[in-house]
Write a structure and sequence with these properties.
The chain has a four-stranded parallel beta sheet, with helices on both faces. It is globular. It is 50% helix and 12% strand. It is built from nine helices and four strands; from the N terminus they run βαβααβαβααααα. The protein has two domains: 134 residues, 3-Layer(aba) Sandwich (Rossmann fold), CATH 3.40.50.1820; 66 residues. β1, α1 and β2 form a beta-alpha-beta unit. α2 crosses α4, α6 runs antiparallel to α7 and α7 crosses α8. It is an alpha/beta fold. Belongs to the peptidase S10 family. Its main location: secreted. Keywords: Carboxypeptidase, Glycoprotein, Hydrolase, Protease, Secreted, Signal. Its EC number is 3.4.16.-. It is found in: Secreted.
Length: 207
């Protein structure tokens, strides 16, 4: 048993965190099944959770979660099943690790778990959360890259000025594209009405 346990949230829907995170990044074997010297297993036990991919499925598609709070509830139920009956697991602090889209509900999940711990319904030591390039607010992220790269000395003054010009041009093009394209408005309206399946299908039409 290692010092702590890392639970990984997959990057995005329909992509298995087991395949990418495990075999391509931090697991004991790479995609050619060769040993990885830098595996996180040297320091931590690893737990990968996959939803709606491969052998993870529901008989009725209506049972899939529809928002982040439902995702958090399901994950908390999973933790109860894993930890409450296993005293060995209870001794290792749990860290919830997420990258890209997984970071969108990482914190929500952590708060749900903490509430269950405080209520005495979940027996585990909570270590914390780790967010790796989490895709939480795309627009804010894109328009902050120039400032971030300058702050960490990856851009000089000239490079920063160029990034600002490109950001303004990008924002101008996006706003004009949205205003001139009825499909954007259609998708926005469908989302506001809660018709997410139709909105997704319309996005395919837009692409």
């Amino acid at each position: 048993m290692n010092l702590f346990l890392c639970l990984f949230l997959e990057k995005k829907g329909r992509v298995s965190g087991v395949g990418i995170r495990n075999f391509q990044e931090v697991g004991p074997l790479d995609t050619s099944l060769n040993s990885r010297n830098s595996t996180w297993l040297q320091k931590s036990d690893l737990l990968f959770v996959v939803i709606g991919t491969g052998y993870s499925f529901v008989e009725d598609t209506k049972l899939f979660v529809k928002n982040d709070l439902e995702v958090a509830d399901d994950f908390t139920t999973l933790l109860k099943k894993l930890f409450n009956g296993d005293e060995t697991l209870q001794k290792s602090p749990l860290f919830i690790v997420a990258e890209s889209y997984g970071g969108k509900f990482d914190v929500t999940f952590a708060l749900s778990a903490l509430k269950a711990i405080e209520a005495g319904k979940l027996k585990l030591k909570f270590g914390g959360v780790a967010l790796g390039d989490s895709w939480i607010s795309p627009a804010n992220f894109v328009f902050s890259w120039g400032h971030f790269l300058k702050d960490v000395s990856r851009l000089d003054d000239n490079g920063f000025k160029q990034s600002q010009r490109l950001e303004k041009l990008f924002w101008y093009l996006i706003k004009n594209l949205i205003s001139q394209n009825s499909l954007f408005e259609k998708i926005r309206q469908l989302i506001q009405e809660g018709q997410y399946k139709e909105a997704t299908n319309s996005r395919g039409e837009l692409e």
